[in-house]
């Protein structure tokens, strides 16, 4: 396979090599690629947000004069109101009135905090405790593993419990907890390394196959 | 008023949206859905604010000929180009027919942003390896466990591991991932869940008010 003549491939190769050049040391090529990444990424996500999120959710209903979620003029008012609140964010640039920008930030925090309180208690606490509460059984390897998970969770949580000194029984349980956590961290680390290595292989395959054409 | 109004907005919004989960009525469902659209709209202005801040930072550096001003121009040019490309041409592959020119926005995504992001993440493989060499020296029992667990999972994920262990590494790696790893993750997730819930409560009650800029 001959070397690629596609300009897009050459551009991608240039940026790939610019980033890899950081392995030698920080240099102008890396800095150039880094700044390109910042500009392109910010522009890309801005356009995606405007065209794919706000256009169907806000601009289109405003253009049609009708919002399916809340029909009637009140619905249009409910769409215009957050736009006005959002505009208040620009008071951040004013030295005298920058406190007005707190209003939209407070609204974002409120909309975030309320549902988060319930959702996290439901999904991260109750739904994690449910599968841990298993019937103790050593009848099969799977049920033995489930018991091990339950023991690991209790010991791990004990390790994170700092209101009581880790001594005596609590200390022993916390020690089993830290061992469990270390095995877990090691496994996660190994898994992450393999994911990163897979990306690295992907970049080399791109250079060797798509650009140089030395492998098929 | 400067402090009370934002705190009142946060409390009323957070309280209403937390309580609506326990009131099975269509009005409260609509209220929640409207709040999510509001979040998108106000969040979009926050994004615009971020873009304006980025522009101001780099424009200031470029105008003042501060060190690295050339790179700031690169950022400004790329930012402007992507926004212009995005609003003047197709932004989704579905908008162009097969074999047609995909437009400068999609082209820049495919040939600039995508390789840059992938290579930056790939670069982490080297840094993870060097950090692991320094951190994983088996000096204590806990470090040894961490090292063994990581090595087994890594070897269990490649064909070589199975060849040298007659298939044992992949089985042990799977067991490590699905038993001790699940136990550790579950303990962490429960801890994080309680922490986030506590933080949400602090925000709702106005105890946590760092978003007000230190006041």
Give the averaged pLDDT of chain B, no decimals: 90
Number of helices of chain B: 8
Helix/strand-derived category of chain B reads mainly alpha
* Secondary structure: helix percent of chain B: over 70%
Structural class of chain A: mainly alpha
Sheet bearing the most strands of chain B, described? none
Kindly give the count of domains of chain B: 2
Distance between the termini of chain A: 7 Å
The percentage of residues in β strands of chain B lies in: under 5%
Number of helices of chain A: 6
Rg over C-alpha atoms of chain A, rounded to the nearest angstrom: 27 Å
Q: State the largest interface.
A: A-B, 115 and 123 residues
* Global Rg of chain B: 26 Å
Strand content of chain A: under 5%
Write down the secondary-structure element order of chain B.
HHHHHHHH
List how many beta strands of chain B DSSP finds: 0
Number of E strands of chain A: 0
Major sheet of chain A? none
Task: Provide structural commentary.
- The complex is a heterodimer of chains A (216) and B (215).
- In chain A, α1 (7-20) packs across α2 (28-64) and α1 (7-20) crosses α6 (168-211).
- Chain A has a domain at 136-216.
- Chain A has helices at 7-20, 28-64, 73-87, 102-132, 141-159, 168-211.
- Chain A is built from 6 helices and no strands.
- Helix content of chain A is 74%, strand content 0%.
- With 216 residues, chain A is mainly α.
- The relative contact order of chain B is 0.06.
- Chain B is extended and about 65 Å long.
- The model of chain B has no long low-confidence stretch (mean pLDDT 90).
- Chain B folds into 2 domains: 1-88, no CATH class; 136-208, no CATH class.
- In chain B, α2 (26-63) packs across α3 and α7 runs parallel beside α8.
- With 215 residues, chain B is mostly helical.
- Chain B has helices spanning 4-19, 26-63, 69-88, 103-135, 141-156, 159-165, 168-178, 180-204.
- At the A-B interface, α1, α2, α3, α4 and α5 of A face α1, α2, α3, α4 and α5 of B.
């Amino acid at each position: 396979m001959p070397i690629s003549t596609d300009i897009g491939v050459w551009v991608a190769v240039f940026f790939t090599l610019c980033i890899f050049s950081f392995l030698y040391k920080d240099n102008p090529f890396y800095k150039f690629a880094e700044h390109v990444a910042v500009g392109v990424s910010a522009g890309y996500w801005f356009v995606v947000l405007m065209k794919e999120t706000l256009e169907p959710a806000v601009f289109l209903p405003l253009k049609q004069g009708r919002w399916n979620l809340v029909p009637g003029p009140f619905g249009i008012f409910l769409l215009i109101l957050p736009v006005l609140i959002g505009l208040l964010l620009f008071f951040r640039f004013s030295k005298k009135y920058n406190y007005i920008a707190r209003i939209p930030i407070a609204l974002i925090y409120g909309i975030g905090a309320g549902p988060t309180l319930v959702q996290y208690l439901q999904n991260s606490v109750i739904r994690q405790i449910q599968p841990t509460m298993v019937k103790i059984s050593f009848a099969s390897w799977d049920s033995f593993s489930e018991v091990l998970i339950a023991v690991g969770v209790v010991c791990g949580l004990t390790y994170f419990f700092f209101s009581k000194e880790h001594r005596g029984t609590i200390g022993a349980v916390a020690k089993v907890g830290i061992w469990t956590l270390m095995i877990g961290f090691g496994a996660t680390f190994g898994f992450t390394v393999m994911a990163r290595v897979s990306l690295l292989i992907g970049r080399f395959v791109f250079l060797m196959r798509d650009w140089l054409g030395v492998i098929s | 008023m400067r402090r009370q109004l934002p705190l009142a907005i946060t409390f009323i919004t957070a309280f209403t949206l937390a309580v609506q989960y326990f009131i099975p009525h269509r009005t409260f469902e609509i209220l929640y859905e409207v709040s999510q659209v509001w979040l998108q709209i106000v969040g979009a202005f926050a994004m615009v604010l971020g873009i304006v801040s980025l522009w101001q930072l780099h424009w200031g550096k470029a105008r003042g000929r501060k060190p690295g001003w050339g790179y700031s121009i690169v950022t400004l040019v790329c930012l402007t180009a992507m926004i212009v490309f995005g609003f003047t041409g197709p932004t989704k592959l579905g908008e162009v027919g097969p074999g047609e020119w995909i437009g400068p926005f999609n082209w820049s995504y495919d040939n600039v942003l995508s390789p840059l992001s992938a290579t930056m993440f790939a670069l982490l493989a080297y840094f993870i390896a060097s950090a692991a060499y320094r951190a994983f020296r088996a000096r204590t029992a806990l470090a040894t466990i961490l090292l063994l667990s990581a090595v087994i999972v890594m070897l269990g994920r490649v064909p070589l591991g199975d060849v040298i262990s007659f298939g044992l590494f992949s089985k042990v790696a799977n067991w490590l991932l699905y038993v001790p790893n699940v136990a550790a993750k579950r303990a962490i997730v429960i801890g994080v869940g309680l922490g986030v819930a506590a933080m949400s409560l602090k925000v709702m009650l106005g105890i946590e008010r760092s978003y007000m800029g230190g006041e």
